[in-house]
Amino acid sequence: MLTTNRPDLLERALAQRPGRVDLAVEIPLPALAERTGLLRLYSRHARFSPEALQSAAERTAGTTASFARELVRRAVLTAAAAGEAVADAHLNAAVDELMADAETLTRSLLGSAAGTLPSHSHGPQ
C-alpha cells in the first residue's frame, strides 16, 4: 500500500511501469459539507459554535482532512497557552494563521491544494 498527496512527484520507475501499482484510488479534497463535518469531528471536545465551524469550513476551501485536524489542534494549543477556555475566537485566529500567505509551505505539507507552492518555487532556500 502506498499513499501520497503528491502523485506528480512519484519516481518514474514506480509510476510508469506496469505491475508496480495494482490500483490507484484518488480521494478528492473534502467539499464544504465534509470540511464542516471534519471540523465538528476533530473539535468534539472543544465545543466551537456551529457558526464558527461553518465559517472555518467556508474559509478553508481546497484543504485536506489533516489540515482540519491541524486547525483545531492550533486553536486548542493557542487557548491553552493563553490560559483560556477554547472559544470560537481561537478557531478564527487559527484559520487566519494557517490560511495566511506565510503558511503556504505548511498547507502544502498538509496536502492542501490551497497550499500549493508556485511552480517556480523550489522550497525554502
UniProtKB/TrEMBL annotation:
InterPro entries: P-loop_NTPase. Keywords: Hydrolase, Protease. The keyword Protease applies. GO terms for molecular function: ATP-dependent peptidase activity. GO terms for biological process: proteolysis. It comes from the Bacteria. SUPFAM superfamilies: P-loop containing nucleoside triphosphate hydrolases (SSF52540). PANTHER family: ATP-DEPENDENT ZINC METALLOPROTEASE YME1L1, METALLOPROTEASE M41 FTSH. This is ATP-dependent Zn protease.
